[in-house]
Amino acid sequence: MPRAGLSRDAVVDAALAVADAAGPSGFDTLTLAAVAARTGVAVPSLYKHVGGLDDLRRGVALVSVRALTRRIAGEAMGRSGPDAVRAVARGIRSYATEHPALYAAAQHAADPQDPADAELGAAGAEAVAAIATVLRGFGVPEERTVDAVRMLRACVHGFIALEQGGGFGLPDSLDESFEVVVATAVLGIERLATA
Amino acid sequence: MPRAGLSRDAVVDAALAVADAAGPSGFDTLTLAAVAARTGVAVPSLYKHVGGLDDLRRGVALVSVRALTRRIAGEAMGRSGPDAVRAVARGIRSYATEHPALYAAAQHAADPQDPADAELGAAGAEAVAAIATVLRGFGVPEERTVDAVRMLRACVHGFIALEQGGGFGLPDSLDESFEVVVATAVLGIERLATA
DNA sequence: GCCCACAGGCTAATAGCATTAGCCAGATTG
DNA sequence: CAATCTGGCTAATGCTATTAGCCTGTGGGC
């Protein structure tokens, strides 16, 4: 019986592939059985590399959050002001469209109490920081920055969540609606800057 | 062995209670076992009243959507313009805070293909229509109304989703941030009206 | 070059879940 | 009062995760 030569990373990678291939609900419906099948190993063998399903999910979430952060930072680079906000918003939506399950995984917030979630929590904070960077230059006062970031996140995530959940029934262009949402968010940021 | 005297409605009601008592993830973690325990009946007996777990979820979603629609309509009544939008937005958030699991259930969109989802789809359309009503009086052109509704929904739902998911780590006031989001949405609607 | 230890695979067993089949009694109706 | 049907039940199947315990291939020390 030859060894499969797995590792934690290999298992998490397989889980990423399994989830990603299963559409928007891929993260929720992720099973050890599917990952075992993909890695060519029996289910209990996975426990040699991963603490269990929850831990595997954590690993998937961590990779997904970091990928999303890279996307955000990449879009923001070399841009500023409304232009940067638009690019970042579109980038996040693109990521969600290309990898619905991973985007969903990235939204699973870390439990501040659980020490096992510390790394995930830090990664999430980095993503938020990357978004906050984009708001530089708008002149939003320090104490309103949190509100601005939350507002931008809410607008973008809300649209994506509804879009992926099939919440928008009408056939009208989703791209155009998204642009309206983003333009509105920009407007809101500018309002926070002047008020 | 005395009969429990169940009915579809009784089973759905029990499921609502079970889900509601289990916090934000109550809808996802709903199990027939828990509903059976609450109704004092063996698990397979539930199949006499409900098609299965999926069908039970559909029933819960339907009740939840209708409750949310009533809330929206109630808040909108007697108000108009920005005042109405603010009231509706706060009402939706209140509903989500009071009944996180039911709010989550109400977001489960119906499958347009599945005839069993027809009723749920119609109920969802009513909820959207109730929101659209609030936009009367802003003077948003006909062909932009869809965008306005989507934008408002995205803002409100996005905030709630992040709030309930623990996505807002910082201790700053969530109520204030929500007001910022709502004010921004109003701004966006007004922009659509004039542009 | 051999031996030993351990890492990484395995099978078996347990427990929780949904679902289906088939039985049986209580209530309803002719 | 009998017949039927409704709504309970138990038993069985199959999927899931998880734990325990075995066994073997691989690599390091002598």
TrEMBL record, chains A, B:
<protein>
    <submittedName>
        <fullName>TetR/AcrR family transcriptional regulator</fullName>
    </submittedName>
</protein>
<dbReference type="InterPro" id="IPR001647">
    <property type="entry name" value="HTH_TetR"/>
</dbReference>
<feature type="domain" description="HTH tetR-type">
    <location>
        <begin position="5"/>
        <end position="68"/>
    </location>
</feature>
<dbReference type="Pfam" id="PF13305">
    <property type="entry name" value="TetR_C_33"/>
</dbReference>
<keyword id="KW-0804">Transcription</keyword>
<dbReference type="GO" id="GO:0003677">
    <property type="term" value="F:DNA binding"/>
</dbReference>
<dbReference type="InterPro" id="IPR036271">
    <property type="entry name" value="Tet_transcr_reg_TetR-rel_C_sf"/>
</dbReference>
<keyword id="KW-0805">Transcription regulation</keyword>
<dbReference type="InterPro" id="IPR025996">
    <property type="entry name" value="MT1864/Rv1816-like_C"/>
</dbReference>
<dbReference type="InterPro" id="IPR009057">
    <property type="entry name" value="Homeodomain-like_sf"/>
</dbReference>
<keyword id="KW-0238">DNA-binding</keyword>
<feature type="DNA-binding region" description="H-T-H motif">
    <location>
        <begin position="31"/>
        <end position="50"/>
    </location>
</feature>
